[in-house]
Write a structure and sequence with these properties.
- With 552 residues, this protein is α+β, with helices and mostly antiparallel strands.
- The protein has 15 helices and 12 strands.
- The strands form 3 sheets. Strands 2-1-5-4-3 form a 5-stranded antiparallel sheet.
- Strand 1 (204-208) and strand 2 (214-219) form a beta hairpin.
Amino acid sequence: MTLTSPKRRLRKRTASNAGRRFSVGWHLAWLLVVAVAAGVLAWRMASPPAATLGALGAVGAAAAVGALLAAVGDEAAAVGATLIWALAGAAACLLTGGTAGPLAAWCLAPLAASAAFRRPKLLALGAAAGVAAAAITAMGASILALPKAPETLSTWLSLLALGTTGLGFAAGLVALQGKVRGDDARAREAELKLREALDHQPQLLMSLFPGGRILEAFGEAPIGLETYDLPNRNLADLVSADQRAAVEEALIRAAADGSAEAAFVPAHDPQGWCVLTVRRLSGKRLVGALRDARAQKRREIELDEARVVAEQQNAGKSRFLANMSHELRTPLNAIMGFSDIMRQRLFGPMSERYSEYADLIHESGAHLLELINDVLDMSKIEAERFELAREDFDAREAISAVLRLMRGQAERAGINLRGELSAESLEAEADRRAIKQIAFNLISNALKFTPRGGSVTVSVYPVGEVLEIAVADTGVGISGEDLARLGRPFEQAGGAEQKQAGSGLGLSLVRAFARLHGGDMTVESTLGEGTTVTVRMPVLVPAPTVARAAEA
């Protein structure tokens, strides 16, 4: 792991450019020396030996190609240049008498070139290439009749080969040592910065044995601990006695599965709370992150307390509504009973105006009673006091009864109400009133949102042991924003006219009744096309059970 800040990347790029410039300069210097030597040879001798000039040309060509490859700067170019130096050194030796000739030192030119590239890993290749060049030269001398340099030039050529090779190798080693020192300095600097970052990060990072012994620790220790005291201690020593087993189990899981997490009270602080995350680093090493989580624990406790208070308040509200609904329903029943007596004129005739008033009182009372019943049911459900009265019955009969009840309202609204019921018996074990209420609320909602001339279709089919009730209308549809809110108590969709026609409890009761039966409700709608509400409940009695019941 290294820290790669922009400044460090810039320094690294600068060092790389400096190394490239040195390698190019080293090759050009070698090329210059060889070119000067060839010029002096041609100037002092009327007809210099062609083999000697060829040897100088081979090395000069290697220097020129090496300079071009050094300018590229990558490892492949350095490897190619080293191999070219090996071929050029072997060629120069073969053209001047082999290993016994004056240019035999140039067999070591690949080693000098590898040092000039300032790549420590390249030295082995340079040495191998030099040995290979010497071996090729020795084999050539034993097999072939090699040309020899004139005696008058031998001393001069020997000095040239030894000087260029020695000085080149020395310059390359000095440059290589400088690069190695620079790399070491940068590595130490990076390590110091990394350690500084680890020591100042907000968690305690630890290197562990699978048994729990701490090898190294970096970062901020929990309150009451010091990071420098932790190495060579056992992690279990930091944990309260009753929770050590959980931490030890987490270490075992991390070693086996790769990761684990545990939370515990520290041994030194009974009021504290720490969270340990462990990852497997290798077969014999784990890395752990320990953070002080007392603030998080305190927030969780506060949230739990707030949730309990909110649930208690909600339960109190539900109990209040349930009690008030009972208190309201008693006088309302009397009002509806007396208004019904007046409508039927059981105690004699009365004027048309009074008769109209009696109808309005009865109609308003029925609407209010329906609302009170909805509130009462929802309050019981929210207070978890609603009990299903399960019985065995044919679900088609319950749905058909609701369809007959709602058909008059649909005809008055000019809406075609159709029922598509399964031809087979749908024996269900459910609350008959709840099933009727589900169908009644869904159909009422569909009629409310469907304009005159539209249609509402009620489908009831079995899906395995699941009773599926679907009510589809061709109404105005529901927007995505309203769709997300539907199903919650007192939430309504549509315009002001539709909202005035209901209390917002219809769909929430449908969903609640469905969930009490182990099912749920889904709503699909498209604006301008219509809505389909589907209720699925696993209440159907399997066919074999029905058959056995009939036989009994």
